[in-house]
């Protein structure tokens, strides 16, 4: 896999537009592991993976576009980042399906449509709308590093925190081509955010807790937006928090499914 690694940020390409249909299905970035493992049987790599996975990426992006995703910046980021490089090579054949997949240690890489949705929501925050791109981003739950690589396409500065050392190490290796001044990976408990580089104009979490940790709210800049799943009774909802000069405004969007936010380091 390392032979396929490419430098970041990657060149952007575009694909043609397709008809839109309304979306609204339950977003499941993290499927139950058994289910993910079942569909994760090794298979042949899609044609193009290895030398050029552009066509399969374009197919995924065309599908997302047909489902109603329309922010070209997000679609271009998805076109630019080779998702298969963040997976075990045995799973490369499924890398461009809109599905979550196991990345080891009981965790999964997020589903592309859910990542796209969260990126779109981040870009609609006040500060991002004014500047046209994400400012400094804090990501909780680096996992494979895939979403981090997408964020680095949209922001000049991404701080990503992961509590599991083996995943942190692998993501660091995988993202080594990223410009050092653009991405900072931290092995730490993301429940505390990352105070040294606060405030952040965007905060995004890939793991769900019972509440949004106060550290995240404290470290959110005025004009900034936080997008994170949160448990509500027996469901998980996508919470959007905007920090204005007068305080915080919080709304809940669609139902989602994420792995748990856990404290402590491993
Ligand atoms: N965005 C990732 C998804 C990874 S799954 C990707 O694209 O691959 C969520 C990740 O959150 C897991 O790796 C898990 O270990 C991590 N996580 C859970 N609780 C955490 C915490 N308190 N601090 C940092 N990372 C955490």
What can you see in these coordinates?
The protein is of the alpha/beta class. The protein has a domain of 153 residues: Vaccinia Virus protein VP39 (Rossmann fold). The chain is 27% helix and 24% strand. It has eight helices and eleven strands. Strands 5-4-3-6-8-9-10 form a seven-stranded mixed beta sheet. It has a two-stranded antiparallel sheet with strand order 1-2. Strands 7-11 form a two-stranded parallel ribbon. Strand 8 and strand 9 form a beta hairpin. Helix 2 packs antiparallel against helix 3 and helix 3 packs across helix 6. The longest helix is centred in the first third of the chain and has 13 residues. S-adenosyl-L-homocysteine (SAH) binds next to strand 2, helix 6 and strand 4.
Question: Layout of helices and strands, plus pairs?
Answer:
Layout: H1 33-38, H2 54-66, H3 72-80, E1 101-104, E2 107-109, H4 112-123, H5 126-131, E3 136-140, H6 146-154, E4 157-162, H7 165-174, E5 183-187, E6 200-205, E7 207-208, H8 214-219, E8 220-232, E9 235-244, E10 247-255, E11 259-260
Parallel strand pairs: 3-4, 3-6, 4-5, 6-8, 7-11
Antiparallel strand pairs: 1-2, 8-9, 9-10
Helix pairs in contact: 2-3, 3-6
This protein binds S-adenosyl-L-homocysteine.
The site of S-adenosyl-L-homocysteine (SAH) has 25 residues, from β2, α6 and β4.
Give the SSE order as H and E letters.
HHHEEHHEHEHEEEHEEEE
Uncertain runs: 1-25, 41-49
Query: Shape from CA axes?
Result: globular
Reported by name, the CATH topology of the domain at 103-255 is Rossmann fold
Strand content: 15-25%
Radius of gyration: 17 Å
Q: Biggest sheet, strands in spatial order? A: 5-4-3-6-8-9-10
> What is bound: which ligands?
S-adenosyl-L-homocysteine
**Biggest sheet, in brief?**
7 strands, mixed
| Tally of individual helices | 8
Structural class: alpha/beta
Indicate the CATH class of the domain at 103-255: Alpha Beta
Oligomer: single chain
What's the total count of β strands?
Answer: 11
Mean pLDDT: 85
Q: Approximately how much helix is present in the residues?
A: 25-40%
């Amino acid at each position: 896999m390392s032979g396929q690694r490419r430098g970041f940020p990657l060149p952007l390409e575009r694909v043609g537009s397709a008809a839109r249909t309304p979306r609204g299905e339950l977003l499941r970035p993290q499927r139950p592991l058994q289910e993910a493992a079942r569909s994760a049987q090794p298979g042949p790599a899609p044609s193009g993976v290895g030398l050029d996975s552009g066509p399969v990426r374009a197919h995924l992006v065309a599908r997302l576009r047909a489902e109603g995703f329309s922010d070209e910046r997000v679609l271009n980021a998805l076109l630019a980042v080779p998702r298969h490089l963040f997976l075990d090579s045995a799973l490369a054949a499924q890398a461009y399906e809109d599905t979550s997949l196991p990345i080891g240690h009981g965790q999964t890489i997020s589903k592309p449509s859910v990542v796209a949705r969260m990126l779109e929501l981040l870009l609609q925050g006040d500060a991002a709308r004014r500047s046209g791109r994400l400012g400094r981003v804090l990501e909780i739950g680096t996992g494979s590093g895939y979403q981090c690589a997408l964020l680095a396409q949209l922001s000049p500065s991404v701080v990503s925190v992961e509590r599991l050392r083996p995943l942190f190490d692998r993501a660091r290796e995988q993202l080594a081509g990223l410009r050092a001044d653009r991405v900072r990976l931290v092995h730490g408990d993301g429940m505390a955010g990352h105070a040294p580089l606060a405030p952040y104009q965007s905060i995004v979490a890939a793991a769900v807790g019972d509440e949004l940790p106060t550290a995240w709210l404290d470290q959110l800049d005025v004009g900034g937006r936080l997008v994170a799943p949160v448990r509500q009774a027996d469901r998980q909802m996508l919470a959007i928090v905007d920090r204005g000069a007068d305080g915080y405004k919080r709304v809940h969007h669609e139902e989602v499914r994420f792995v748990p936010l856990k404290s402590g380091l491993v």
